[in-house]
Design brief:
about 240 residues, 8-stranded mixed beta sheet, 8 helices, 8 strands, about 30% helix, about 15% strand
């Protein structure tokens, strides 16, 4: 499977990542990627960058070192009503937005509460992707999340970093398998994101690919092989 795109990457602006945008994209070019999304953490995450950083992302070139650069954001879901930490005026100017549950921003609640947070976030017209939905720290109703993803045209991410043994989200595997099986049954595509916080992780989907192989997930439902199809599915296309 030739993967041409990485939709979830971080730069030093995120506060706990360690590479510049230029370093990230140079590496991506060497890896043969055609499209990379810069998705630094939104301001609700402690010690990340501020509002002005995202408002000013338009200064970045659309193409850098032969790679198309998508100017994006990883939003933090801040409450069980699905509130995110960036205003629509800025979001409307970006290429894409991931929305994720992060423990520093929202403590895990009940299954009903966690599910509501994701479902409500997907109602946002600028949320394109739910990041690392398999996080075992948040008990959710995956059938309900999947239904909402289909209804709103929101993509569910298979997050490679979450599958690293011993990592913050260790134990995600069974939840991700459940998501993959529902997607297979419905013919629903997914997107793989490295969630790289250092440039050498960009384009690394090794753990995600192992899980896809384990469940027999079809190649044609992996959007990373077809960046143009992915771009056509973004809500702000």
């Amino acid at each position: 499977m030739k993967l041409l795109m990485d939709t979830h990457t971080h730069s030093v602006a995120s506060g706990h990542a360690y590479s510049t945008v230029d370093e990230n994209i140079r590496w991506a070019a060497q890896k043969g990627l055609e499209v990379v999304a810069l998705t630094d953490h939104a301001p609700g995450m402690k010690d990340t960058t501020g509002h002005a950083y995202f408002a000013n992302l338009h200064v970045l070139p659309q193409n850098l070192h032969g790679v198309r650069l998508l100017r994006g954001i990883e939003l933090n879901i801040m409450d069980f009503n699905g509130t995110v930490d960036m205003d629509e005026r800025v979001l409307s100017r970006l290429d894409l937005a991931i929305a994720s549950l992060h423990v520093p921003c929202i403590a895990p609640g009940s299954k009903k509460e966690n599910t509501a947070a994701l479902v409500k976030a997907m109602e946002n017209p600028y949320v394109d992707i739910i990041g690392h939905p398999g996080d075992p720290r948040y008990d959710v109703d995956y059938k309900e999340v999947f239904r909402q993803a289909q209804q709103t045209g929101t993509l569910l991410e298979i997050n490679n970093a979450s599958l690293i043994p011993g990592g913050f989200r260790d134990g995600s595997q069974e939840n991700v398998k459940e998501i993959l099986r529902m997607c297979m049954e419905a013919g629903q595509p997914v997107v793989l994101g490295s969630d790289a916080h250092f440039y050498t992780g960009i384009g690394d989907f090794s753990y995600a690919l192992s899980l896809l192989a384990e469940v027999g997930f079809p190649e044609e439902l992996v959007l990373n092989i077809d960046p143009q199809r992915f771009l056509s599915l973004l809500k702000r296309r």
